[in-house]
Amino acid sequence: MTVTIESETEVPFDFEYEQTAREVIAQAMDSEEFPYEAEVNLLLVDNDIIHELNLEHRGIDRATDVLSFPMLDYQEAGDFSAIGEEQEWNCNPDTGEILLGDIIISVPKVLEQAKEYGHSPKREFAFLITHSMLHLFGYDHMEPEEAAIMENKQEKILEVLGISR
């Protein structure tokens, strides 16, 4: 597994955020039984950058906490059976790892939401990565049933890691 972490803003977290990111990504892959080695990119930004990206890619004129850019299409969320058939289209030619996608997180939103929800910045950061990883696996939360599935999976992943509210 390759996790590339880059920052385009100051990251004032009081925890080992790179280690946390790698642990959360690995646990999400384990929990979903992702059958391949994978590559994930994580970019930490400020509210101005995520606002710009939201406007450019989603037509949303505001900053949000996280953006997910999946590199794979799924017939059904969490069904990885078709990846093997098209692996050459979705892998890094140098490593052979499947390109899952990109996660972009607003550092100010992590801090703001942690305070708002009454938990640690580490928990908020881990939650946003978990949430985004599920998007990279094809899950969504547009319908109440989909949201319930994602919420359940998120809580289980964080529980295994011992990261609670």
UniProtKB/TrEMBL annotation:
<keyword id="KW-0540">Nuclease</keyword>
<keyword id="KW-0963">Cytoplasm</keyword>
<dbReference type="InterPro" id="IPR002036">
    <property type="entry name" value="YbeY"/>
</dbReference>
<comment type="similarity">
    <text>Belongs to the endoribonuclease YbeY family.</text>
</comment>
<feature type="binding site">
    <location>
        <position position="141"/>
    </location>
    <ligand>
        <name>Zn(2+)</name>
    </ligand>
</feature>
<keyword id="KW-0698">rRNA processing</keyword>
<comment type="function">
    <text>Single strand-specific metallo-endoribonuclease involved in late-stage 70S ribosome quality control and in maturation of the 3' terminus of the 16S rRNA.</text>
</comment>
<dbReference type="InterPro" id="IPR023091">
    <property type="entry name" value="MetalPrtase_cat_dom_sf_prd"/>
</dbReference>
<keyword id="KW-0479">Metal-binding</keyword>
<dbReference type="Pfam" id="PF02130">
    <property type="entry name" value="YbeY"/>
</dbReference>
<feature type="binding site">
    <location>
        <position position="131"/>
    </location>
    <ligand>
        <name>Zn(2+)</name>
    </ligand>
</feature>
<keyword id="KW-0862">Zinc</keyword>
<dbReference type="InterPro" id="IPR020549">
    <property type="entry name" value="YbeY_CS"/>
</dbReference>
<protein>
    <recommendedName>
        <fullName>Endoribonuclease YbeY</fullName>
        <ecNumber>3.1.-.-</ecNumber>
    </recommendedName>
</protein>
<keyword id="KW-0378">Hydrolase</keyword>
<keyword id="KW-0255">Endonuclease</keyword>
<feature type="binding site">
    <location>
        <position position="135"/>
    </location>
    <ligand>
        <name>Zn(2+)</name>
    </ligand>
</feature>
<keyword id="KW-0690">Ribosome biogenesis</keyword>
